[in-house]
Request: fold
Amino acid sequence: MSLNDHLNEANLPHLPSSIGRPTYDRSSITSGIVHIGVGGFFRSHLASYTDELLNCKLSDGEQRQQDKSSQQDTSCWGICGVGIREDDARMAAAMGPQDCLYSLIVKHPNGLVESSVIGSMIDFILGTDDPSVVISKMASPETRIVSLTITEGGYNLSPATGDFDFDNPDVVHDLEHPDQPKSVFGYLTAALKMRRDAGAAPVTVLSCDNIQHNGDLARRMLLRFAQRQSPELASWIEDQVTFPNSMVDRITPVTSEADIEYFRVQSGLVDQWPVTSEPFRQWVIEDRFANGRPAWEQVGAQFVPDVSPYETMKLRLLNAGHSVLGIFGALHGYETINDCIADDRFATYLRSFFDREATPTLDPVPGINLDDYKDSLIERFGNPSIRDSVSRICLQSSSKLPVFLIPTITDNLKAGRSIHLATLVIAAWCLYCDRQVDQNGKPLDIVDDMKEPLHQAAKKTADDKRAFIRYTPVFGDLAQNEDFATTYETLVDDVYRSGDVTQSMQRLLDD
Ligand code: CS2
Reply:
């Protein structure tokens, strides 16, 4: 072996014993799960839970043990990864030569690092090569769950209308060419039609994205799209497919060159695309599966009748908290979330936002003490080994803020509570979109599908202070709320004038 050998099935025995690996026979696994959107998060979360389950159920002597909750053989719960965007070719190119194996590098706050090779993904196919292969795979009787991590923006919801966006060019294309889909809804509809026509068993669509009622949204969007194609098919989907809501959590930074090098040195093998994460992970799922499910509860997932309080808590504290640090941190010139937390001004602002504005909008969460949860978030954000970049957090802010932060503002407006701390984030985001540089003049790394229209709206601020919040694709009719608009006007004035976001933050805390 040389240090340039790749991680793959044949090389697994060469791994040092400190690195975990599948103890099950991957060749005996079939893919009951088809997953769309193979990125870092899926690989550190759903695939890692599933790997652990396969490991504990299928190792030594316990091969093919009956799975209590699904009454199915655990070996049917392997995963076939699917990419439907052009960019997914990069992941396919990395995973192909590695037999879909990759390493999960878990970084603890005290510097301890634990690596293991994850084997639950047993295949990876690209719709961009041939959509029919993906459609047939999703329609195959072997497939019982189609899971999704397609990001907040992937649901094609227009915040302005609250409805499915039929103007999206991919959607227009898919309605005209149902056999050659590009969008996730085109793929799902084509596969479900094939399933119905073949009389195949029902299936579960399991959304694992950070959206409130992610399953309900997936269902609503899919039905809107399918209805346009065929009302009969849409009603078959309503009857036969379940869409459990789920809350997912594990901070998963973007993989760096240093991570690739770390694994190479530790293992003696090249993994072209490892994934790194924090040790914490959480998965709360509604137990509504149409055709069986893995016993994920045996490896720490929680099945509940209603996931709502858990998901609202996570979106409005963890994800919104990230956005608060991300937008302010980007303008201030910080590169990582832990750098932000190490600055007391940021940590204090965050805690005040949590306590004064986010928490009052939350219902009690069964089994969770919110004070402990908030403490643990500050600790997790501060994990110095994770080095989660501010630019990852700010990625696609236009689809994150309407989900993470704006609902807290609208709830507080309705209840007559404080909105200042959250509104300052919107004001700072306007400056961010307008100037596109940090406070030291360094260009910001902005990746957002709405970057240009947001820039156009933000740059009118000098003449019209409300121009940015009138951008309805993000803010809907929020600008028409006079309380919000006047608060925003004062704060946008303040951030533009001070040139230092920490001063505006401090002024609000002192009030
Ligand atoms: C982050 C999330 O994208 C974001 O802005 O808040 O990716 C976050 O790290 C995950 O939801 C953690 O579970």
Remarks:
- The pocket of D-mannonic acid is lined by residues 210, 249-251, 319, 322, 393, 400 (CB under 6 Å).
